[in-house]
Amino acid sequence: MQSLLEILVAGLLLVNLVALGAGRIGSMVRAVALQGLLLGMIAIVAHGEASNRVLVLALASVVLKAWLIPAMLFRALRQVAIRREVEPLLGLLPSLVLGALTTALAVAAAGRLPFAEERLAPLLVPAALATVAAGLLLLVTRRKAITQVVGYLVLENGIFAFGLLLVEAMPFLVEAGVLLDLFVGIFVLSIIIHHINREFASLDTRRLSQLRE
Amino acid sequence: MLLPLPVVVPLALAVAVYLTPSRLWRPRLLALGAAIHLLLVGLALRAPAGSGGDWLRLDAPGRLLLLLVSVLFLVCAVYAVGYLEQRPERENRRFTACMLAVLGAMSLVAYAQHLGLLWVGIEATTLASAPLVYFNRSARSIEATWKYLLISSVGIALALLGSFFVGYAALLGGGEASLLFPDLLARAGELSRPWLRTGFALLLVGYGTKMGLAPMHTWKPDAYGEAPGVVGAVLAGGLTSCAFLALLRFTQLTAAAGEGIYANRLLIAIGLLSMAVAGALLLGQRDLKRMLAYSSVEQMGILALAAGLGAAATFAALLHLVLNAFGKAGLFLAAGNLHRAFGGKTTGEIRGALRRLPYSGTVFLFGLFAITGSPPFGLFVSKLLIVQVALAAGRGWLAALFVALLLLVFAGMGTTTFAALQGRPTAYARQSAYRDRARGYLPPLLLVALVLLLGLHLPASLRGLLTEAAAALGGGR
Which of B468, B458, B470, B467 has its CA nearest to residue B48? Predict the structure, then answer.
């Protein structure tokens, strides 16, 4: 089980780099969907013996992160007439290099923190921190509205990975609430994406610059 | 687990209002819902302190926040009835429903005793308020909504990570894995320090984003500037207060775990930075609503600073929280009236407001004195208390810097406000249809008068509630 877990966590990190290196918006959305699927599998492998509760949670998050939200984003992408290239503020190669660097930094930072047990935490903590960092990197360096949402999703995925360490301590209701908030948040964001497109005939958030001092 | 009525009823009413076909009745239902909420809160406050389940329970700080939010919301809801009448061209279905949903979410924050549930409540306030910012459906309001939603969501996501870190710190401490604040506080000494420290920093960034502390404040002038005045009042008075309570709860926990000096240092630094950034951006500010937004950044900075002064300043911080909520909301409502009459919100468009709208203009003027802490308004008392605590702690330089920044803010806000109030109204304003009516100027007048009255005399019941809340949040520090 442990080796399977290691492979899945490595996959999680790899997907971060795929998202950072993706040249087309569609590939970014697909990457984040794959990440959602991997997270669900990690949850089951890590806590599989635990309870039905984990199973339900993992399933819900897979449905949400690997299917519903990507579907919403693809729908938004179809509705708006924009170029499908990512057109990042920071080139793809520098993004990849930075992504690799932050991953290394996350591993180093996690090494300085104490862990409760030796099985899950040493794997999940660095992966979670690296994913959070990758999400922030995407948020800052990508300027189209949909790609910023993808960055936010990657960030959320990192936090979800960390949350797996707390599955026993977190009541089901709270986790369900977190997932619901995520869903509603993305839903509202995709509605606004639609309006941005209608109003500005573009999804470039640099157009959103009327409001300044 | 049963949700308490002040949480459930507004949410149920939000659905009911959304399904109400009559556009005339939806705002009335909103005001009725707010009145019912205040009634329910009154009943909840009569119940013995700390009654309820483990997760959702009203402790003293929660009681204070709930009362504050409920009173504020009722005034705003009454104002909204008149406001929506002025805006017949705008669909009010989503607006009224989202307002009630925000009220329910804010009440949840007041009740939440679990750090995850607290997060869910605060995130829910963000999501429910986003459509309110988008009310005007212009290009500018889209931009404001996008920034508001994205920056707040990212900030709040970091707060979730911080909450998880604190949870993990508790897990490392061993014992029963409970993430309820009372349990965490009881075993604060066992929490893993490195995780707690990192977690607190993330929480400060996260909930600080929601409060609008610099440098995470960038969404605030845009969102407050483009949203209707009544929405600005609810955001600046209610939502920021919820986020501050969350931050105070974690500050208390961090201090109880023996990391108080670390937490206080961060809070004071970010508080001073917020005050300085706000002061700088207030100078030469021409937009009245953006001015109020930066003033809110400054007030949040004062709150963070007070929180960083430790247990001794908790009473002052909570008093400041209440008074700022009322004063700032009053200003936003009055600014909304000026916006209607002058068709704009910069000093280019608003001139001679005292002549054109004598009542709303006067309320705005007194609101300015109230919010900048001129005596005898209540905020003078709370700011004075903060200075006293700083001096008593032997931090003269901090007190001096604090007062200097307050003066800077007063200079900035005063210049803009007087430019808007004095002079001759523009041609547009002289012809516009908006008239000063009681339903427009009475709600802000009431709020500003409250700040004045509470400065002259703090009723024993409110003082008791504040003292209790301060004791509950200062315990262990």
Answer: B468
- Arithmetic mean of pLDDT over chain B: 94
Cβ–Cβ under 8 Å, residues B290 and A210? no
Boundaries of every domain in chain B: 5-472
Chain B CB contacts of A171 below 8 Å: 55, 114, 116
Question: pLDDT tens across B256-276, in order?
Answer: 999 999 999 999 999 999 999
- Statement: residue A195 has pLDDT above 90: no
B179 to chain A: which residues are within 8 Å by CB?
A: 166, 169-170
Q: CA-to-CA distance for A157 and A175, rounded, in angstroms?
A: 13
A126 vs B contacts (CB less than 8 Å): none
Contacts of A158 (CB under 8 A, 6+ apart): A127, A128, A129, A130, A131, A132, A133, A134, A135, B161
Q: Which residue among A156, A188, A200 places its CB closest to the CB of B130?
A: A188
Strand partners, B112: B56
Amino acid identity of residue B314, one-letter, is T
Which amino acid would we find at residue B75?
Answer: V
B1 has a pLDDT exceeding 60: no
Residues B402 and B356: beta-carbon distance below 8 Å: no
Which has the closest alpha carbon to B162: A34, A129, A18, A45? Answer: A129
**Is residue A39 a contact partner of residue A12, using CB atoms and an 8 Å limit?**
yes
* Contact between B218 and B151 (Cβ < 8 Å): yes
The predicted model gives A76-81 an average pLDDT of: 80
pLDDT (tens digit, 9 = 90+) per residue, B158-211? 999 999 999 999 988 876 668 899 999 999 999 999 999 999 999 999 999 999
Mean pLDDT of B62-89: 96
Whose tokens are 């970014």? That residue is: A28
Q: Is the dihedral of CA A64, A68, A74, A79 positive or negative?
A: negative
The enclosing H or E element of B470 equals: helix B460-474
Query: Where does the pLDDT of residue B16 fall: very low under 50, low under 70, confident under 90, or very high at 90 and above?
Result: very high
Query: Residues A25, A144: contact at Cβ < 8 Å?
Result: yes
